[in-house]
Prior knowledge:
Elements: H1 4-22, E1 34-40, E2 55-57, E3 70-72, E4 91-97, E5 131-133, E6 170-174, H2 177-185, E7 190-194, E8 197-207, E9 211-215, E10 220-229, E11 232-242, E12 250-253, E13 256-266, E14 280-283, E15 287-292, E16 295-301, E17 303-305, H3 312-315, E18 320-324, E19 327-333, E20 337-339, E21 342-346, E22 349-353, E23 355-360, E24 364-368, E25 371-373, E26 378-381, E27 388-392, E28 400-401, E29 415-417, H4 419-429
Parallel strand pairs: 5-29, 6-7, 7-9, 8-10, 9-11, 10-11, 10-12, 11-13, 12-14, 13-15, 13-16, 14-17, 15-18, 16-19, 17-20, 18-21, 19-22, 20-23, 21-24, 22-25, 23-26, 24-27, 26-28
Antiparallel strand pairs: 1-4, 2-3
Amino acid sequence: MLFPSLTRSLTLGLLATNLIVSAIPLENTDDDSCSLTTTTDAEETKTTSTDDVYSTTVAGSSSDDDDDSTLTDSTSTKSTKTKTKSKKLKKSKTTKIKKTKIKKTKGSKAISTVTTAIATSSSASFSASSTRASSPVASSSGLSTRAGTSGKVFGYASLNGGTTGGSLGSSVTVTTLKDLQYYCAQIGTWTIYISGEISGSGDTVTVSGDKSIIGKPGANLTNIGLFIKSVSNVIIQNLTISKVVGTDAIRVLKSHNVWLDHLDLSSDQYHGKDYYDGLIDITHGSDYITVSYVHFHDHEKTSLVGHSDSNAAEDSGHLTVTYAFNYWENLHSRGPSLRFGTAHIYNNYYRNMKDCINVRKGAKALVENNVFAGDTNKALYSVDGTGSAQASGNEFDGASSSNDSTSLSMDYPYSLIDASDVISYVESNVGAIL
């Protein structure tokens, strides 16, 4: 071999270089606590304009239904298209991010599900039937315990491509109203965790599409409303919202594929029925909405589907909503109040609610295995005689009810628990308990 001394020197040099490289520590990649550098640009941040605010004129109460208010909508009729990719931004900001840890629970009894054809149009097609189960079952996966759904989105929000929220994007934890407003308005896919208590003064948080807003244990919004307009694919979960003045606790309009799950929504009944607005209002042709495991309590006008008798052109064939496993307690009316749309209301527990399910203006409802107890006056009725409902398996406990001969069924799989099991199951699983 030529130049043996030179070859030996080169070999020793390379070995030394490898030793130096291997000794350099790697950057911390712990998924449970990492930093995400985001960017901001004032021009990219959405704000709520005065066009997004309703002016409300309260109509005189009738002896049949005192929840009937006339709403004048000043919102723009032009829907905004949700973008799915974030734009490049300028000013950098570092935000701490944590992954969601999923808890698993075990169930003791099985529950049967029925699989039906899934609708692809915006209007409901009534062609399937459900299978009743004798008892609830605990989920084996997902964030919470849900009968027959394995912790996944169910009901109307599972149709039209499903609802995933921000699960496929980045995540951030917020502790202030300013940060909550900022991240909820961003274009792109985000999971936004709320930590602690945040108070406002009738403030509104505008939520853009492809978002999950999830409360950490104990998360609470006081006098702050969430506004979901002209977007799709939104999940709000595990959050307490109370005493919102001047707007709804959650307002959904011109939007589709929204899942409102495991929430605690309330105000008080000391200020009169028109002091607070709704807890969940769904209007202006919104579609594919599921409201599940929500504790509605201590409020007057609870949940409205369809805001005006004169809005048939926009609402007819739309306003498809599932209400399942909710607890309606110490309320006055709207449990829910339906215009034009189609609702599936099953396995809900109503206690001390004066006027519950009101089906009017051609709306349709499938009402199954619900329990009405305590000081409940009207369980199921139509204030104008134009709505229709098919009711079965309910325990009305002396409350008045009507049952039309309309034959309705849903185009998604679901399971029922017997009415005799509803109270214990709902009380144990409802609210912001994830």
